[in-house]
Amino acid sequence: MPKQITLRSPLDMHLHLRDGDMLKLAAPLTAESFSGAVIMPNLVPPVDNLDRLLEYKQRIVDAVGQHQFDPYMALFFRQYSEQELAIAKEHMIGIKLYPAGATTNSEAGVKAIDAVEPTFKMMEEMGIPLMVHGETHGFVMDREKEFLESYDYLAKKFPKLNITMEHITTADAVEMLDKHENLRATVTLQHLIITLDDVAGGMLDPHLFCKPIAKRPEDREALLQAALEAHPRLMFGSDSAPHPIEKKECCGCAAGVFTAPIAIARLAQLFDKHDKLDNLQVFISDNAQKLYGIKPTEKLITVTNERFQVPPAYVGHNQHVVPMHANEELEWSISQIG
Amino acid sequence: MPKQITLRSPLDMHLHLRDGDMLKLAAPLTAESFSGAVIMPNLVPPVDNLDRLLEYKQRIVDAVGQHQFDPYMALFFRQYSEQELAIAKEHMIGIKLYPAGATTNSEAGVKAIDAVEPTFKMMEEMGIPLMVHGETHGFVMDREKEFLESYDYLAKKFPKLNITMEHITTADAVEMLDKHENLRATVTLQHLIITLDDVAGGMLDPHLFCKPIAKRPEDREALLQAALEAHPRLMFGSDSAPHPIEKKECCGCAAGVFTAPIAIARLAQLFDKHDKLDNLQVFISDNAQKLYGIKPTEKLITVTNERFQVPPAYVGHNQHVVPMHANEELEWSISQIG
Hints:
The structure is a homodimer. Chain A is of the alpha/beta class.
């Protein structure tokens, strides 16, 4: 039976676009079907001042081409002065904090949360959201769980600071989300679908390796339920992370799953499978609009239960990126962009 | 300070030698420093009759060349007749059971344990040991733990059947080992050293990906303590598994760590680090001799705390295999083989 849904202004609240040739390849693949996205600042060097942020934004706008698309820029967290924050505020959606070394290009990140509280305080007072890659340096399956006490601490200590728990992967994180009103979260496509089994249970699959790593079945189930029920403080954030194929299919593969071009269709398939298609609009756009107070470019994306063959790779100048579900058939596809 | 230990007749109680060109490369790398090894039968087709077993043994003897080396042949578990077992018994050390699909070339394995009990019963009566790849098809971190009840069941139901829990990876398995006198276990080098962190905590490392997958820090600690204390029913079994480099550094990498050429030196380094060098002889040979009632070829291997650069690969005709610790320096090395 033909089924379809029209989504208004889908938003990707956590996106890596990289720079240079990769940016030119990746940006249109998101901009075609999303109204806007929160752009991660973990370049080398990091996007940690207004000049870099505005220059990067311009390169994104150039790369996007003819698509209507809002890049919501995030600044890389460091200790900022009040003046720096004041002039940057209107140009950004928030500040992204990386524990030093937790993921790709995060070496310049924060070493101790409590040492940077003056910046949190200013952000709270100025209404600047904090976005956090919430992992410790502990055992890989425990890193997010161990970080939760930091969320708990920050949410209590700065009750007016809006804190986004980025790309949550555990049932414990869903519980923490419910504990404080000023916590919100993003969740990726892959963490709604896969577990560690898919990464390392059969053959080792580098294209499903990401940070935080996919966890246990009961974790996936808790995340999926929260998404399907359109939890009011949970937003879609793909964490789509293009790496050149030679950094993935090699010895010592980089972390990140490239989902941008297939995310909307795959989410429609997932929500439909669980008879929750009506909740996808809230998950993929409305929650983010409310929580961040943003009004994205109007874009109507119609998704239909018509099969779509995912290509083996997306190829640009000097770039070759393998998407999630490469060479597989999705049951849903984007049928119209208006 | 110069330190050394001379090991008498080291035994590798769980070894993959493969076949063809790979066998020719891998066999001498074990035979040089080990007196003997239990040879896994998961070829394609499996080594599941006496003819195949004797032919494979001859190919191993040929591949070993001038080294003194005892290949202890294992038969691939299936339902055997009493007559088949009777004629095969003197040519083998035991029968290896794979749950169907649990690891490399195990598609012909057992689908339900209770359906094959007549063969267990005959093995028990004839004094033929059972060796088991003990994993369910559950979530990758739970597979061994979930299988433990099968060990418990078999050990109770067949109290005179000697059952080896192959390549144990969890603290729970160490506990199970202590529960029944007719259970014994092998443990690999890598599971004494690494956790899932080393496989997937930083970059994804295909050369440390194996089945069972490396588990949590507390699991490694329990295994290490049992080995260092020379637990009387724990034996060294490398599970060294050579895969051609193109099956490892690729998309969808095969499971197995190649440790044979470095195992003895690395174990000496590990036991020395914990001031337990005196227990290495029991772990690497004496326990196996007692538990299996074998008298291996006499071989004296002297290991010294002199540095050794592990090569990037071992290369044979059409074969290129990357060992554990490739390009790293070990603190100990084999200084004399007598």
